[in-house]
UniProtKB/TrEMBL annotation, chain B:
It is found in: Cell membrane; Membrane. InterPro entries: NADH_UbQ_OxRdtase_chain4L/K, NUOK/Mnh_C1-like. The gene is nuoK. It is a multi-pass membrane protein. PANTHER family: NADH DEHYDROGENASE SUBUNIT 4L-RELATED, NADH-UBIQUINONE OXIDOREDUCTASE SUBUNIT ND4L. NCBIfam families: PRK05715.1-2, PRK05715.1-3. It is an enzyme of class 7 (translocase). GO terms for molecular function: NADH dehydrogenase (quinone) (non-electrogenic) activity. This is NADH-quinone oxidoreductase subunit K. NDH-1 shuttles electrons from NADH, via FMN and iron-sulfur (Fe-S) centers, to quinones in the respiratory chain. The immediate electron acceptor for the enzyme in this species is believed to be ubiquinone. Couples the redox reaction to proton translocation (for every two electrons transferred, four hydrogen ions are translocated across the cytoplasmic membrane), and thus conserves the redox energy in a proton gradient. HAMAP family: NDH1_NuoK.
Length: 629, 105
């Protein structure tokens, strides 16, 4: 099966729509949705034709200069196949959901065009066979995310949010680029993932313990690459853009800022896990940052009132989980616990990514249905009682919530346990304890959200008159709800080899801890929020997101603005003054001086001419002979 | 005995007088006449040289016939020059060179 179909189809769709969206109008929507459906079928075919072999196809020699080659080549292995399934499947459902959600939007063609552009770039990341290609598409998803967050650019907050997301991502992308260049230098200009893995895997020239191994270099490269994931997957300290990105349309939040793009960072880390395993220090830092993000974001989520922001912080927290799993697997590998991630079962981070993609996309689409029904009201304290008005949404939302909290026998339970299991194996108990605390907090804030928004009495008119969303919106919800339940089981996970749940055996502690966390979280939330009309607890620190935005504003004011001032001053003096103004002034003066000679008086010219002739004669007759002899 | 030097001195004086006139006078017709005088000075020098440059014991007549050409061309040039002056007078209503400053940079 040729992998170029899911890559090129959205590309052409985006090209056609973005070039001609004024002419196409309604047809643009059909092109985009059609391309997403065909891409999904192509991905299924790709999955059906799966063999265990790793398959590297060259699509296009992109740059070919001397010894430098940058190719567009696709790497088809179990990880990319599984990820392709998630991306194209959820992408397709979100396209369909958008048909309903964006029905009344005037700029629908632009929206669907950007969505197709996103599908193209995301597919590019997933299939990328080398880091340079991945970087190109990495930037492209940043662009399409920018376009989609800023879809309602007339709103000042949306315009601000897309700018913030783009700039924050640029910091991470810069690190990613440096990381790629480091590897580029270390591996003789070859950043092909397969070749890099050979170089870094056991016995390779750059592997841990071989003579070519340089600990600080490997750590630096791993951390630079990780910085890319920090930006894209919104890890601490670059997490600030993701909650603001909720200004975009809700289907976008579901697809890009919950299920796929933000998971690209994790996917990329799993792709370069050989590098992280080669550097124990980097593995510890990655696990620590992931764990810290998970806990911080969960704390922030407990005090948010915007339904989408609660979900956004929960996404942050779950991404932190995945990143922690990436680090913990590498740490566990060092400790000799190879069982959790041996070649056959999937990587716990990928497994959690995969289950999370379904239930979080569903939660976002569910919140989209709620927002749509409540006439774009997002404050959960202005909802309430939606359970009776929107039964299907309520039930699917509850399933998603339960899966996210890790209720037994739902998908989130298996994947969360896999993550906690590997954290337990990593040999660092703090990771495990913080992970368990995050799980309890997750159960708490999700129960709070569910109780406040769906139970009790309607608190406003719009919540009172809410009606069930149309069929095109319900259908994707229902499909995703089914997947949220079954995706943890072998029946679905086995064909997607990379997502196959790792075996967590003999981890009674993990099981007990996760169940305890669930009970504590749900119990305390029910106890606190049942029948309440306003928030009974108020913790300013959490509600204000630990003042990160304010701290960054101060940092920007103190450091960046001063630096900018200095740079401006230098520019004024050197560039504007010495380079631009001074030469023009000199030329202008010379011009003024010579202009005085051009008086326009014929006789003046004649006088000068006569004087010149006399001067020449004097030179020829008196000076030159004396010089000559 | 009149030598080449005498010719050249007269020629130089004529030339210097002409140049002084061209530079100092304001009436454009006078300036033009001075210009013709400078041309005559050059002709005189040429004739002088030809008289004292002997070819087979005879003066070099080539230069003298060249002078006739110069005078003829100068006559034609006078016609053109006077026409320009007339045109100038028509546009400026003046024959003062100070009034012609179109070449100012």
């Amino acid at each position: 099966m040729n992998a170029s179909i899911p890559l090129l189809l959205p590309f052409f769709s985006a090209l056609v729509i973005l070039l001609g969206h004024r002419q196409l109008k309604g047809a643009a929507v059909l092109i985009s949705v059609g391309s997403s459906i065909i891409s999904f079928i192509a991905c299924l075919a790709l999955l059906a034709a799966a063999d265990d072999k790793t398959n590297n196809q060259l699509l296009l020699p992109f740059i070919d200069v001397g010894h430098f080659h940058a190719n567009i080549d696709v790497l088809i292995d179990k990880q990319s196949r599984g990820m392709m399934f998630i991306v194209s499947f959820i992408g397709m459902l979100v396209h369909i959901f958008s048909l309903g959600y964006m029905k009344d939007d005037e700029a629908r063609p632009r929206f669907f065009g950007s969505l197709s552009l996103f599908m193209f770039s995301m597919t590019g990341i997933v299939l990328a066979g080398n880091l340079l290609m991945m970087f190109i598409f990495w930037e492209l998803v940043g662009l399409s995310s920018y376009l989609l967050i800023g879809h309602w650019y007339q709103k000042a907050s949306a315009a601000e949010a897309c700018k913030k997301a783009f700039l924050t991502n640029r910091i991470g992308d810069f690190g990613f680029m440096i990381g790629i260049l480091l590897l580029f230098g270390a591996n003789n200009g070859n950043v092909n993932l397969f070749d890099l893995e050979t170089a870094f895997k056991h016995g390779g020239p750059l592997a841990l313990g071989s003579p070519g191994y340089n600990a600080s270099f490997t750590t630096a490269a791993a951390l630079c690459i990780f910085l890319g994931a920090v930006g894209k997957s919104a890890q601490f300290p670059l997490h600030v853009w993701l909650p603001d990105a909720m200004e975009g349309p809700t289907p976008v939040s579901a697809l890009i800022h919950a299920a796929t793009m933000v998971a690209a960072g994790v996917y990329m880390l799993v792709r370069v896990s050989f590098l992280i395993e080669a550097s124990p220090l980097a593995a510890e830092i990655i696990a620590g940052i992931g764990c810290g993000t998970a806990l911080l974001a969960a704390l922030m989520a407990t005090q948010q009132n915007d339904i989408k922001r609660v979900l956004a912080y929960s996404t942050l927290s779950q991404l932190g989980y995945m990143v922690m799993a990436v680090g913990a697997v590498a740490m566990a590998a060092k400790n000799g616990h190879d069982g959790a991630h041996a070649a056959e079962p999937g990587h716990p981070a990928m497994f959690h990514l995969y289950t999370h993609a379904f239930f979080k996309a569903m939660l976002f689409l569910g919140s989209g249905a709620v927002i749509y029904a409540c006439h774009h009201e997002q404050d959960i304290w202005k909802m309430g009682g939606l359970r009776k008005h929107m039964p299907v949404t309520f039930w699917t939302f509850s399933i998603g919530t339960a899966a996210l909290m890790g209720v037994p026998f739902l998908s989130g339970f298996w994947s969360k346990e896999a993550v906690l299991g590997v954290a337990f194996d990593s040999g660092c108990k703090v990771l495990f304890l913080m992970g368990a605390a995050t799980a309890a907090l997750t159960a708490f804030y999700m129960t709070r959200l569910l109780i406040v928004a769906f139970f009790g009495k309607p608190r406003t008119e719009s919540a009172h008159h809410a009606t069930e969303a149309p069929m095109v919106m319900i259908l994707p919800l229902a499909i995703l709800a089914i997947f949220s339940v079954i995706s943890g089981y072998d029946v679905l996970a086995t064909p997607l080899q990379a997502m196959k749940p790792p075996h967590v055996e003999g981890h009674q502690t993990v099981l007990v801890a996760s169940l305890l966390a669930l009970i504590v979280g749900v119990g305390s939330a029910i106890f606190l929020y049942r029948g309440k009309d306003k928030d009974p607890i108020s913790i300013k620190l959490f509600a204000n997101k630990f003042y990160f935005d304010e701290i960054y504003a101060v940092i920007v004011r103190v450091c960046q603005d001063r630096l900018a001032w200095i740079v401006t001053a230098l520019e004024r003096v050197f560039v504007d003054g010495l380079i631009a103004r001074l030469p023009t002034a000199i030329v202008a003066r010379i011009g003024a001086a010579t202009r005085m000679l051009q008086g326009g008086h014929m006789q003046g010219y004649t006088f000068l001419l006569g004087g010149g002739v006399i001067g020449v004669v004097y030179l020829v007759v008196y000076v030159l002979p004396r010089l000559g002899h | 005995m009149i030598t080449l030097g005498h010719y050249l001195v007269v020629s130089g004086m004529l030339f210097a007088l002409g140049l002084a006139g061209v530079i100092a006078r304001r009436n454009i017709i006078i300036v033009y006449m001075c210009l013709e005088m400078m041309l005559s000075a050059a002709n005189l020098a040429l004739v002088g040289f030809s008289r004292f440059h002997l070819v087979n014991g005879l003066p070099d007549y080539t230069a003298q016939s060249l002078v006739f050409f110069t005078i003829t061309v100068a006559a034609a040039e006078v016609a053109v020059g006077l026409a320009i002056i007339v045109a100038l007078f028509r546009s400026k209503q003046s024959v003062d060179v100070e009034s012609v400053t179109k070449l100012q940079g």
